[in-house]
Write a structure and sequence with these properties.
- By secondary structure, the chain is an alpha+beta fold.
- It folds into three domains: 2-55, Uridine Diphospho-n-acetylenolpyruvylglucosamine Reductase, domain 2 (2-Layer Sandwich), CATH 3.30.43; 62-179, 2-Layer Sandwich (Uridine Diphospho-n-acetylenolpyruvylglucosamine Reductase, domain 3); 185-289, Enolase-like, domain 1, CATH 3.30.390.
- The chain is built from twelve helices and 14 strands.
- The protein has helices spanning 13-22, 36-41, 80-85, 87-92, 96-101, 106-111, 114-120, 128-133, 155-158, 235-241, 248-256, 268-289, and strands spanning 2-8, 28-30, 48-55, 65-68, 71-75, 137-144, 147-154, 159-161, 164-165, 172-179, 185-191, 202-210, 217-225, 232-233.
- The strands form four sheets. It has a five-stranded antiparallel beta sheet with strand order 4-5-10-6-7. A four-stranded antiparallel beta sheet has the order 11-12-13-14.
- A hairpin with a 2-residue loop joins strand 4 and strand 5 (71-75).
- Helix 11 packs antiparallel against helix 12 (268-289).
- The longest helix is centred in the last third of the chain and has 22 residues, at 268-289.
- The structure holds flavin-adenine dinucleotide (FAD).
- Flavin-adenine dinucleotide binds at residues 28-36, 38, 56, 76, 103-104, 108, 111-113, 115-117, 119-120, 125-126, 167, 172-173, 197, 199.
- Residues 28-36, 38, 56, 76, 103-104, 108, 111-113, 115-117, 119-120, 125-126, 167, 172-173, 197, 199 line the site of flavin-adenine dinucleotide.
């Protein structure tokens, strides 16, 4: 069971940062609590009593999103359900609806923040591969005297290992800032021990844009999770495909390459097989999502959310 001596609900970022400096060591920030509660309740950490919890969910500055200059600034309290229901977010972040539909269930999606998912830094966090594909950065705030100082760090540098990030003890993630991929098709593939309410064993994200002819790849972004200590972007496979006229054979050849990178300690051979199939399926699905088709590929039934 999770208990705490003090539960704070600040309404401004400045108040939250000041509290974070004042509370005893071992206190925790909380947003949707969908990671923190099971962590204590399921006995992973045993019964936990925290000196203080600082709930970020009432802070106006962390809500909502803005799109400007080809980038999307997602406030840290944006939850997964918004990636499914908000039309503009679906357009700008084409991989996220596919990621969200397989993420937990409606209730959890209404609570679970993208920022909390990234800070939790699970090797199989579903949000990390699509956000790597979107060149995401985290905006992080801390107090210096009475001034709020901010820094940004790329998601790739932020996640250091399972459960480890670059976040300092007195810092709060205020936003996730990423590329708008308006005009791209998206896809997300995921497998775990079961189909629903499942934590991924392996997941893959793809975003793709074709040129005006609809036959040549203008841009492609690919990323994998669950195959090593940290999720990874597949830059070399992207390079193989960017500017190319796609064939089913070329996609299959490129998709086979990342299997060598599977470094998980368990079920390594299984994951290698899954990875090849997932990259291939993600590319085909993302192509269908942007209205393109590869000659010789069969129509897929599960491509649309
Ligand atoms: C039933 C169930 C199903 C789930 N399914 C999935 C799934 O399909 N895929 C998946 O990836 N995960 C899944 N999860 C895990 C969880 O829902 C996600 O990781 C979620 O996105 C965490 O967000 P949260 O807001 O609930 O984080 P919290 O639990 O509130 O916090 C998580 C961590 O992030 C820190 N934190 C939160 N916000 C901030 C911030 N702004 N700045 C600094 N630190 C912060 C907290 O201190 C804590 O360490 C599931 C959980 C449950 C209970």
């Amino acid at each position: 069971m999770l208990t705490c001596d003090e539960y704070h609900m600040p309404t401004t970022l400045a108040e939250a940062l000041a509290l974070l400096q004042a509370v005893p060591h071992g206190s925790r920030l909380v947003a949707g609590a969908t990671d923190i509660l099971p962590w204590a309740r399921e006995g992973r950490a045993g019964d936990v009593n925290l000196p203080a919890m600082i709930d970020l969910s009432r802070i106006e500055e962390l809500q909502g999103y803005e799109v400007a200059g080809g980038r999307v600034r997602l406030g840290a309290n944006v939850v997964y359900q918004q990636f499914l229901t908000d039309k503009a977010l679906r357009r700008h972040l084409p991989g996220m609806p596919y990621c969200s539909i397989w993420f937990a269930d409606d209730q959890i999606r209404e609570q679970a923040t993208l920022a909390g998912n990234l800070v939790n830094a699970s090797p199989a966090a579903d949000g990390t591969p699509p956000m790597l594909a979107h060149n995401a950065e985290l905006e992080i705030a801390r107090l210096e005297g009475s001034d709020i100082k901010r820094r940004t760090i790329s998601l790739a540098d932020f996640v250091k290992g399972p459960g480890k990030t670059d976040l300092g003890p007195h810092e709060i993630v205020t936003a996730v800032i990423c590329d708008s991929l308006d005009g791209y098709g998206g896809s997300f593939q995921k497998v775990g021990q079961r189909r629903s309410l499942v934590i991924s064993s392996v997941c893959a994200a793809a975003c793709i844009k074709m040129d005006k002819t609809g036959e040549v790849v203008e841009d492609i972004r690919l990323a994998l999770g669950g195959v090593g200590p940290v999720p990874m972007r597949l830059d070399d496979i992207e390079k193989m495909l960017r500017g190319k006229q796609l064939t089913a054979e070329l996609i299959a050849r490129a998709s086979a390459k990342p299997a060598e990178r599977v470094a998980s300690r368990t079920r390594r051979q299984y994951r290698r097989t899954v990875v090849k199939g997932f990259i291939e399926a993600a590319i085909h699905e993302a192509l269908e999502d942007c209205g393109a088709r590869v000659p010789g590929s069969a129509e897929r039934e599960d491509a649309h959310v």
